Amino acid sequence: MLPILEDGRLDLVEIEFKPAGKRWLVRVYIDKTGGIAINDCEYVSRELSRRLDVDDIIDHPYTLEVSSPGLTRRLKESTDFERYEGRTCRIVTRDPIAGKREFRGEIGRVTPEQLEIKEKIGIFTIPICAIKKAYLEFDL
């Protein structure tokens, strides 16, 4: 799949593979600098479908979906936070940090181990391993 993504200058965000009734669902999320267009999804769907058919990797009926992670995409890895530095996100931590478990603010400096989030009341440092879930928020 990597050559398909490289040819389109696309990044793989996530792959979901799960049962959906009698068939399985293969959902592929892609992204690129500047955002995804419908043509990008069509290209990956067409090329990946061909590749899956030729290599016969999946041994039962499936439905393939290719999509963008969306404007409010989930952030998981330090590289996700780096990519969206300066954007607004919402973070929920496993345990309290400075007496809080929920943060909403601008993503600041990011390292592989931690990130800064700039809220109106101050800047908080959050270890990546302490994050339960994090999402970009849509700025108006």
Task: Give me a quick take on this structure.
The protein is of the alpha+beta class and 140 residues long. It has helices at residues 2-7, 38-55, 78-83, and strands spanning 11-20, 23-31, 62-67, 88-97, 100-110, 114-119, 122-127, 131-136.
Index terms:
SH3 type barrels; alpha+beta; 140 residues; 2 domains; elongated; 46% strand; GMP Synthetase, Chain A, domain 3; single chain
Could you please describe the fold and organization of this structure?
- The protein is of the alpha+beta class and 140 residues long.
- It has 2 domains: 2-67, GMP Synthetase, Chain A, domain 3; 78-136, SH3 type barrels, CATH 2.30.30.100.
- Helices cover 21% and strands 46% of the residues.
- It has 3 helices and 8 strands.
- The chain has helices at residues 2-7, 38-55, 78-83; strands spanning 11-20, 23-31, 62-67, 88-97, 100-110, 114-119, 122-127, 131-136.
- Strands 7-6-5-4-8 form a 5-stranded antiparallel β-sheet. A 3-stranded mixed β-sheet has the order 1-2-3.
- Strand 5 (100-110) and strand 6 form a beta hairpin.
- The protein is elongated.
- The model has no long low-confidence stretch (mean pLDDT 91).
